[in-house]
Amino acid sequence: MTAITLVRGDITRQTADAIVNAANSSLLGGGGVDGAIHRRGGPAILEECRKLRASHYGRGLPTGKAVATTAGDLDARWVIHTVGPVWSSSEDRSAQLASCYRESLRVADALGARTVAFPAVSTGIYGWPMHDGARIAVETVRATATSVEEVRFVLFDDRAYEAFAGRLR
Questions:
Q1: What is the predicted pLDDT for the residue at 5?
Q2: How far apart are CA 166 and CA 135, in angstroms?
Q3: In sequence order, what are the beta bridge partners of 81?
């Protein structure tokens, strides 16, 4: 059974086999978690992302999918990039958000990763309500068959930490 742990802090400071990046579809960096991972991880991550764009993902990584690159200067072996959906009050995109977690774990399994650090995907600039994002994240990880031994949700502030903690009680 996969252990789920919570950490309040900066995902780029985590030690894990894989760190999940809440990427934008371009894979070329951006704001929030994505920008922080690219900045701290250094140019090797961007170089591999550019190669992915030039080969398999010419139109970008689709929402809900995941792909891995080197972790560059981060204290991890890999970065798993996943593109979360933008929140919509008129369209249920929760299946796409759940897919981000499932697909990231699938990629982690393929790599042989045993520890994976996740941010709260889509709950920042993409506007997903934190409590619902926490529900989807925890339920999906619990329901996904995986060889990953520890999933660590790394939460940037107290509000996010409390939302996730409420789902683990």
A1: 98
A2: 9
A3: 21, 67
* Separation of alpha carbons 85 and 95, rounded Å: 9
DSSP 91: S
Is 34 noted as a catalytic residue in this protein?
yes
**Chain segment 65-118, per-residue pLDDT in tens:** 999 999 999 999 999 999 999 999 999 999 999 999 999 999 999 999 999 999
In this structure, the strands spanning 18-23 and 3-8 are: unpaired
From CA 71, how far away is CA 41, in angstroms rounded? 6
How far is Cα of residue 149 from the mean position of the Cα atoms in its chain?
16
Note down the domain range covering 130: 3-168
Contact 149, 2 (CB under 8 A): yes
Reported pTM: 0.97
User: Could you give the number of structural domains in the chain?
Assistant: 1
Q: Residue 108 is part of a domain; what is its CATH number?
A: 3.40.220.10
Options 34, 73, 92, 132, the catalytic residue: 34
